[in-house]
Design brief:
Structural class: alpha/beta
Number of helices: 10
Largest sheet: 7 strands, parallel
Low-confidence stretches: 1-11
CATH class of the largest domain: Alpha Beta
Order of helices and strands: EHEHEHEHEHEHEHEHEEEHEH
Oligomer: single chain
Distance between the termini: 46 Å
CATH superfamily of the largest domain: SPOUT methyltransferase, trefoil knot domain
CATH architecture of the largest domain: 3-Layer(aba) Sandwich
Length: 277
């Protein structure tokens, strides 16, 4: 829980009171560098950039440590009040470019205390289907899928063979528009995933190009299910496809070889929630 400042605490610094920091050796910038360089699978501090993502993170309960803006950002004081950040730093454009190098830079970002990692119990305790991605490794696709999973009230998202070590990767935060903090996301092995399905008695439905079950039929299935999607190029692993109770396909023009996995996921989630005609 975020604590309100007491009367003995230092008042938050206002944007007009903060001088522009151009020296990358400044302690406030060095702190950001340390967070960027961390490769921990369980980071203690996260970088969240873009105002929409920051607001979403705060709404999900994250505690903001400090707020960083460039002189071009005009909403610093209101955002500082919303985030309850006690520290505000105004960075020069050149300092921001140096800080993030070739990566995307932003006019506003925060350092936030990382939330605890989601557990299987978190997923089991929520209503809704369980979405599993097997071999999906492009951060933009994973983030977009997390957004769709949130939109359709999925119980959680399981990442299998994703090459990720940290679900709060800055790219995932951006692509999910901060919704990665609002739904359980778990990095797991196939063995852990299948054990979870057995324990919770959740049947598996797989999307496959040659699936024999019409996708529309999944709307008639009672209870919760797990929806499995593989990468656009190779699909899901044979091991998991063989474990699926249903293999479904998206009806489409045969001249089109495949759909982007995030698009296919959105279609599948919509079909799951739309009564068959």
């Amino acid at each position: 829980m975020i604590q309100e400042p007491t009367s003995t605490e230092t008042a938050p610094e206002r944007a007009e009171d903060a001088s522009v920091i151009d020296d990358v050796r400044h302690p406030a910038i060095r702190r950001v560098v340390d967070v960027i360089r961390s490769k921990s699978a369980k980071p203690r501090t996260l970088i969240i950039d873009d105002e929409e993502n920051i607001r979403q993170a705060v709404s999900a309960g994250l505690e903001i440590e400090s707020l960083y803006v460039t002189p071009r950002f005009e909403n610093a004081e209101e955002l500082q009040q919303f985030t309850k950040a006690t520290s505000l730093y105004v960075l020069g454009e050149s300092a921001v470019k140096t800080l993030f190098k070739g990566d995307k830079s932003s006019r506003v970002f925060v350092l936030a205390k990382a939330p605890r990692l989601a557990t299987w119990r978190d997923v089991a305790s929520r209503t809704g289907d369980v979405l599993a991605l097997d071999g999906v490794r492009i951060a933009g696709n994973i983030g977009a899928i997390i957004r769709s999973a949130s939109a359709f009230d999925a119980a959680g998202v399981v990442l299998l063979d994703s090459d990720l070590t940290n679900v709060f990767d800055r790219r995932i935060i951006r692509a999910s528009r901060g919704l990665v903090f609002s739904i359980p996301v778990i990095i797991a092995t196939k063995e852990e995933f299948t054990q979870f399905l057995r324990t919770e008695d959740i049947p598996l439905a797989c999307l496959a190009a040659d699936g024999e079950t019409p996708l529309s039929s999944i709307s008639t299935l009672d209870g919760r299910i797990s929806l499995l999607l593989g990468s656009e190029r190779t699909g899901a692993s044979t091991e998991l496809e063989d474990a699926a109770k249903w293999r479904c396909s998206v009806p489409m023009n045969p001249n089109v070889e495949s759909l982007n996995v995030s698009v296919a996921t959105g279609i599948a989630l919509y079909a799951r929630h739309t009564p068959a005609q």
